[in-house]
Every structure is written in C-alpha cells, then in structure tokens.
Amino acid sequence: MTTQDGLGATEPAGDRALAAAAAGATYPVAPGYRVKVRQGPGTGYPVVRTLAEGARIQIRCQQHGQSVSGPYGTSDIWDCIGAGQYVSDAYVRTGSSGMVAPRCTN
After folding, report:
1. pLDDT at res. 1
2. Quick one: how far is CA 92 from the chain centroid?
3. Contact 70/52 with Cβ under 8 angstroms?
4. Side-chain half-sphere of 70: how many Cα atoms within 13 Å?
5. Where are the beta strands (DSSP E) in the chain?
6. What is d(CA 77, CA 41) in angstroms, rounded to the nearest whole number?
7. Which of 34, 60, 59, 58 is nearest to 47 (CA)?
8. What is the pLDDT of residue 36?
9. Who is most buried in 27, 58, 86, 103, counting CB within 10 A?
10. Could you tell me the mean pLDDT of each successive run of 10 residues in the chain, 106 residues long?
C-alpha cells in the first residue's frame, strides 16, 4: 500500500507510519556507556564525537551497515542522528530489534 505525501509523491504506508512514530521521539543510549558517533554506518568510519553517559538521541533515519555487538544485542542497524553522524543501534534502547525510523536515503 502507498500513500500520497501531499506533493503528489507516493511512499509506502509503512515508511510513513515509521516517520510519524519517530518524529520527536528520543531514545536513551545504554546506561554506563559513552557512545561513539561516527561519520558512517560502521566502526571503520572516523569518530566525530562521543555521547555522554545518559544521553538521549533523536533518530532521523536508519540504515544497515557493519554488524556490532553491544548491551542490546548484535545489530547491523545504524541510527543517523544528524548529517554524517551515526550510532550503532546495539547501544540504543529503541524497544525493537528492527527499524524504528525510516531508512536513510543517502
């Protein structure tokens, strides 16, 4: 099923529902961890900054990348929290082992 976005473009209804659910939601990083934010979806990308313990993030979009093990299991999902800023979903408590935001389009 697809829906129109008001501009004449269509998108899958599931992506639209994810975008609506993710808008404004914040998620906590794992307690006791200072999580590295990287330029891309993998540990081979440079670190751009480090999130403080107890930080909460807003996920713009998500994409698959390098698989990482963390306190919330092993995941290849990376959460984009800003332009060129990715955090492994294995360190974020989203309440789901799958996507909770739209896929990144870059």
Report:
1. 43
2. 8
3. no
4. 25
5. 2-4, 10-12, 27-28, 36-38, 47-50, 56-57, 61-70, 73-82, 85-88
6. 8
7. 34
8. 98
9. 86
10. 42 52 82 98 98 97 98 98 98 96 90
Residue type, 36: K
Tokens of 93: 């408590």
| Rounded Cα gap, residues 73 and 99, in angstroms | 14
pLDDT of residue 106: 66
Q: What distance lies between CA 72 and its chain's CA centroid?
A: 14
Cβ atoms of 76 and 46 closer than 8 Å: no
Supply the pLDDT for residue 16: 52
Model's pTM, two decimal places? Answer: 0.79
**The tokens of 25 are what?**
């939601």
